[in-house]
Amino acid sequence: MEQRVSLITLAVDDLPQAVAFYQNIGWQAAQTGPGVAAFNLHGTVFGLYPWISMAADMGLDPQLAMRPSMTLGYNVREKTEVAQILEPLFMTATEAGALVAPHRQLIYLGKRAQASEARYLFALDISDLPEDGLASQFSQQSYFAELREIGPMIDGRDGSVMAYARAMLYWHYRHIYCGRCGQKTIVQKLGHQRKCGSASCGEMHFPRTDPAVIMLGSHLHIQLSHPLNYLAF
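RE: above sequence
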């Protein structure tokens, strides 16, 4: 990562007034979309953005007394650099040893072929641990991020593994108890099956990860119909 800053964005209360201030000292605003202003500073862009909009982009409550004041942006030169900056963290069995506990079930995700060896991938739910207490388990450059936010910016294979792990862990979270009798379920088949712990029930539960795709059809003719006993509106 190069030692530079691409974008400095200052949060302001009144955007037109802030723009007028910098124009009065001789700065010329660049062409931008509505609701934001920018000034080119010989390699760095200085932006002005309403603080309410900035808070909304950050997912913060605008009513809080603590308001965002500025943000720093770093633009990469090529797409391949993004994966180097936002590289998902995969821990070895030795590194994750302290996180493994009897109440945290390892979920088998599959095998990934590497250049010289195959690696077996597992997922582990550590959401019951505070993020502050996990700092010592990871490097100083590591941090927690929402997968939907970084998904488009990381390598496709890593993103697929992360999405699969997230879906499997969420399924286990939703199926701790049997949907038929309410008794606690038991994890089996390396996390790909849960069985009701009640001897009188024994219901088997299997993962449902709800995959979804979005498609656009071209030159497609669709015929809509309904049973005769249905009223059309």
